[in-house]
Amino acid sequence: MTEYNSEAYLQKLDKWWRAATYLGAGMIFLKENPLFSVTGTPIKAENLKANPIGHWGTVSGQTFLYAHANRLINKYHQKMFYMGGPGHGGQAMVVPAYLDGSYTEAYPEITQDLEGMSRLFKRFSFPGGIGSHMTAQTPGSLHEGGELGYVLSHATGAILDQPEQIAFAVVGDGEAETGPLMTSWHSIKFINPKNDGAILPILDLNGFKISNPTLFARTSDVDIRKFFEGLGYSPRYIENADIHDYMAYHKLAAEVFDKAIEDIHQIQEDAREHGRYQNGEIPAWPIIIARLPKGWGGPRYNDWSGPKFDGKGMPIEHSFRAHQVPLPLSSKNMETLPEFEEWMTSYQPETLFNADGSLKEELRDFAPKGDMRMAANPVTNGGVDSSNLVLPDWQEFANPISKNNRGKLLPDTNDNMDMNVLSKYFAEIVKLNPTRFRLFGPDETMSNRFWEMFKVTNRQWMQVIKNPNDEFISPEGRIIDSQLSEHQAEGWLEGYTLTGRTGVFASYESFLRVVDSMLTQHFKWIRQAADQKWRHDYPSLNVISTSTVFQQDHNGYTHQDPGMLTHLAEKKSDFIRQYLPADGNTLLAVFNRAFQDRSKINHIVASKQPRQQWFTKEEAEKLATDGIATIDWASTVKEGEAVDLVFASAGAEPTIETLAALHLVNEVFPQAKFRYVNVVELGRLQKKKGALNQERELSDEEFEKYFGPSGTPVIFGFHGYEDLIESIFYQRGHEGLIVHGYREDGDITTTYDMRVYSELDRFHQAIDAMQVLYVNRKVNQGLAKAFIDRMERTLVKHFEVTRNEGVDIPEFTEWVWSDLKK
């Protein structure tokens, strides 16, 4: 029976740690000859990289933690996965995966011998190789740590509904200064030990950032303890006066980690078998503060150049100078080769590796086996069960739209709110998928009209509940929205999605911009993961922009920003889907599609305010499937006829205004031959670029079928910034476009005045349409002038009424759709 706390076992752990750290340090500099001292082969210039790239400072501390995590898995048979938050230091996951064999399983050419080790060294931070972070190229990784601040949010999402898993989440002390990380300490207030897994957070307190000390490093242990106890944690420490007494660190770490795991198991047993922590009592989850020096075990001083201090060179170990490449060694400058050789041989590689590059026999059984290896944990590769949701038939929740009621308000006001229509569908999904679907948000779920969901589930919340002041709050629930943090909601969703489950993050459109860089990072992850043959795909990440720019008349200018559309349109379209459904039925059909898509970011812009409904179930299905459609009942041109102009719209309010505009034109000039095109999937308009597998973009011929040849006038009502549509049409070589979108003008005002601010409204669109018809000699001057004068008088009336009475004019509020004159 193995004694996991014995001196002999901890010495084996120390050797494994030294082996991992040796490889992690060596691959920064060497592209071949990795075991130079073991094989007796002197290092030559051609063995070194010309431009060493990497981050040494965090590596030895993280390999230390990884080694101890392996020990915990072995001792407690605990399923666990590693998450490296400090950023960079990718070797801390690459090397352990190489030593336990999982890296070779993913990349068979990286064999566990001298030749394979040389290939691994060369590819690290090298053109055509692997990155310096814990990228999607790294077995076992589901968090890259490039943009800092999200490791605990991701870890929380990853362990929700996975009661057997523990996230071994390493937080960098520099990372701990970021806003998202600071707020994510509150994540434990949403983790239910009855049904969820656990996080074991480790604050990797190595003391320094790029060129500054960290705040926690200059904070006393007493104050750090107070800080974390105030947050609800039970802190414990790993530190030693002599930073080079490594065995003392191992012995202390073993004791601290054992107590932490045993405390987690006790918390879970109390919750699962005795019903504890279900009435407002929050467990005192352990957190470990590990003072592991930056650049630990590496070069201690810069003795070869520069200023001196106390007769020695400036410190490198335990200093910011260890952050990146600690020696100026390269194939072009071998002056510090002796220092490098002394550093590498200090790990005693001859006791760790055989001359053929294989690991010594006694160390091969240290790492866990099979799926118990953190690098091979299925959770980190698309999840244990990454199948799609069981979906109900969306048409069962659709509004009964027909020719008789399209463009009119339905009798039940709630049916005119697209998001409420969607909430009925989501409520049924919750019932069909009780442990694999969640909704996340920053305290906006009620505001965003997900009312029907609260009939079948609650908000998950572990703190005290005070009725009747609180509502729909429970220790168990499929909604987590009780922390006002977009970063948390997005991070939880990303962790949940990357581990094979499906969720939705709904937020006010303007404040979704708070996490646009997080969406960029997720895009980069799925983009890179798609290139790894061994990686499984993921459910798509679903975000809803609601409380949109043209519905923020009551909150004002700060709440008006549709720029997420532009932000995501700049990414590779293979991985981005942006939808602008114009009504409830189309929104349902879009989500039916989105939930079946894989490894995408689905961005859905949806209305929550009551307004007209437009499309039948059949029309909605076609719009969601094709992403774009000519709407015959809103068009006057027949097949084969020349078109005078095209009306098009994308989004809820633009569709109302564009349809109203063409209706106004048709009333006075029914001879105009126009086509109306509704655009639901924005990416369909974009032009194919290069050899990427861009399967959704329209061909030039298809684009022309909708918008006519270049020069055809197009009046386009758009939900976002106008230059996005302008750039798309420019790339298509299509002239004649007039866009009415958001023009960065707004205020607290009336519903329709918001549209007038940006000239999205029907009257401005109709003026442009009539001017186009007049310029192209389709209508006489007298009719055009009379029409435009009437539109302008109506806008003057609108201005006077809104400014004097604070209400919209009947020309807006009382308009309903009627059949066109054809």
* E-strand count: 21
Distance between the termini: 88 Å
The helical percent reads 25-40%
- The tally of domains stands at 3
Tally of DSSP helical segments: 25
The CATH topology of the largest domain corresponds to Rossmann fold
Q: Which strands sit side by side, in order, in the main sheet?
A: 12-9-13-14-16-15
**If you compute it from the alpha carbons, what radius of gyration comes out, rounded to the nearest whole angstrom?**
31 Å
Mean pLDDT rating: 96
- Class computed from helices, strands and strand pairing: alpha/beta
The fraction of residues assigned to DSSP E strands is 5-15%
Characterize the structure shown.
The chain is of the alpha/beta class. It folds into 3 domains: 7-380, 3-Layer(aba) Sandwich (Rossmann fold), CATH 3.40.50; 394-605, Rossmann fold, CATH 3.40.50; 644-814, Rossmann fold (3-Layer(aba) Sandwich), CATH 3.40.50. It is 35% helix and 12% strand. The protein is built from 25 helices and 21 strands. This is Putative phosphoketolase 2. Keywords: Lyase, Thiamine pyrophosphate. Residues 5-384 form the Xylulose 5-phosphate/Fructose 6-phosphate phosphoketolase N-terminal domain. Residues 608-817 form the Xylulose 5-phosphate/Fructose 6-phosphate phosphoketolase C-terminal domain.
Considering the chains and any ligands shown, give keywords for the structure:
alpha/beta; Rossmann fold; lyase; 25 helices; 822 residues; 3 domains; six-stranded parallel β-sheet; Xul5P/Fru6P_PKetolase; thiamine pyrophosphate; five-stranded parallel β-sheet; 12% strand
